[in-house]
Amino acid sequence: xxxxxxxxxxxxxxxxxxxxxxxxxxxxxxxxxxxxxxxxxxxxxxxxxxxxxxxxxxxxxxxxxxxxxxxxxxxxxxxxxxxxxxxxxxxxxxxxxxxxxxxxxxxxxxxxxxxxxxxxxxxxxxxxxxxxxxxxxxxxxxxxxxxxxxxxxxxxxxxxxxxxxxxxxxxxxxxxxxxxxxxxxxxxxxxxxxxxxxxxxxxxxxxxxxxxxxxxxxxxxxxxxxxxxxxxxxxxxxxxxxxxxxxxxxxxxxxxxxxxxxxxxxxxxxxxxxxxxxxxxxxxxxxxxxxxxxxxxxxxxxxxxxxxxxxxxxxxxxxxxxxxxxxxxxxxxxxxxxxxxxxxxxxxxxxxxxxxxxxxxxxxxxxxxxxxxxxxxxxxxxxxxxxxxxxxxxxxxxxxxxxxxxxxxxxxxxxxxxxxxxxxxxxxxxxxxxxxxxxxxxxxxxxxxxxxxxxxxxxxxxxxxxxxxxxxxxxxxxxxxxxxxxxxxxxxxxxxxxxxx
Length: 501
Hints:
By secondary structure, this protein is α/β, with parallel strands linked by helices. Helices cover 44% and strands 14% of the residues. The termini are far apart.
């Protein structure tokens, strides 16, 4: 159908148009089959689930099942559920003025029945766009049955001079208002057990009961839910009778390949800062950001039951770019590239997203974040360069010229906001650094070359081959052995006695 609302405005013209009434689950199923046959994108923007989650969702739809997505935070559960609306017809006819999207051929509410009984084929018809056939509720402890199902509205009764026993005094909740559509409850375990009980009839008998009325209203609705694993939330459980009525439980997961994580971050992060500066992002820096997520998901300091959201890498990328952008603005530079200093400015993205276990709390959130970033840098570096800690002498010899230069007492200081000209001069001074990078990774641009030079120094530090003094706004690299000896300077005789003991 076109995006224009159909011209049919009465029940009689709807009957002669040939439109057929089918259940919402049959409608979703029909449109899914049509999209599969045509090769259309089914879940746009959802990456990494092509062989796992998405086929299971399609199977549930084809089976006309209600479903629940179970997984840790930041696994695109809500995005997937909201995209289900794309499997509905673009427009659907309802009895005009109906609160619960009454089917003109099968009216449910007293309002719709009375209107059709009174006007017959002249009863007015309206058309609802599929975007208005999706309802969603975040489960919170204060959610009530009235919110979801409905209740008697004494104010409505008084205003319209209705008896409280009149069906028109009912104030319908969110679920009946989404009749002939899709209704989603996010974080289902947070819903109090007594409220979950109110969903049992909807899930099995497909009707709702409003207290005070000896009437059942059969709804045509597709239900879907999301939840974190129950052993993580600790705020509640899904009651067994409700869990039994949910036909399909689908487990989501984090990206299994780094390339998928990189693509998700590229898709979601705000990278375009061209109004202030053009920022060059070497691929290796994208890999470091994603490697930080993989390291965090393996870290002994992080509560793995809580998970490490993909939102972490998205916000990390944005903060890294902001660090580079700020430096470009300070130095009035129109172009800049990412540096190691920028990488460490993603610490707030990590500390805000990681739930630490006891050992992590003892270390401190910032220390854990820097530790994870350091491991990510070392892990990524070894994908391109020989392992600095290798027992192979040939591998170690590749770094000898660089470490020898520092062993002679030379140092490199790299303030966070150092202009590119001075940044370049500082890195050029390190003997053997440029030749190592040029021979190993062959950068295509000057900006990329110096991002690599900076990264090599940090990686050598992470592998205990260089010392690093880390201050608030700058870092200084020096010889590891020389730094150790300098730490003894100024010690008194009694301090050495302490070492002897």
